[in-house]
Amino acid sequence: MRQKDPLWQTVDSKTAGSEDKTSEQNRRREPSLNNQMEQLTDKELQIAHWIEKMPDLEPPSNLLTSVMQSIQPKKLPLTQRVVLWAKSPKSFTFTPMKLAPVLMVLIGIFVVSGYWVFRQKDWGLYSNQAESHIPVVFNLSIPEAQAVAVVGTFNGWQPRGYEMQFNREKKIWSLTVRLPEGRYEYAFLVDGQRVLPDPEASLYQDDGFGNENSVMILRTKNEKTT
Description:
Blueprint: H1 6-39, H2 42-53, H3 63-70, H4 78-87, H5 96-132, E1 134-140, E2 148-152, E3 165-167, E4 172-179, E5 182-190, E6 194-196, E7 203-206, E8 212-218
Antiparallel strand pairs: 1-4, 2-5, 3-4, 5-6, 5-8, 7-8
């Protein structure tokens, strides 16, 4: 039988020594593990047994997303966000191209507002004037006419809008107009051709063309009806 070389004998002795130390350490640990197992209750042992038998499961694919969403900061209420925005320093840069739309909107608002205010004033003025105007009733008995209108200094001698209505029962043409107090000349335009003065007028005025116009003078206290 071949004898080992001194070098191999040295290696074997070291290996045997290390194995002896490992066995000694395991023997020392076994009592401590046994003591720990003995200290566990039956319920804890059962739980440990269940845990040992539990299979290794892979985490769900959306686990990371769920975790990140759960740790995201909560959205602050609108009032707090406005306060924080107002307190934070800001810098603004304006250019003519950026300001143009804003200026157009402001000009539009200004124009619409001004128009609305002036219309309100005009309407109020018109209402006040209408309340202070005097109602004047024009009558003309000429049943054979096809159309009759009142023209005068109060409407620029234009018949449009001052057409009279024919009353078939009374057989007269009639129109009511509200006018402010003052002196007016007027006449009746019959069938768009003939100009006739009011036969019931108290005053007449030469029109400078050989014809006469009727004259009425209105006062606030004494309403004039022709």
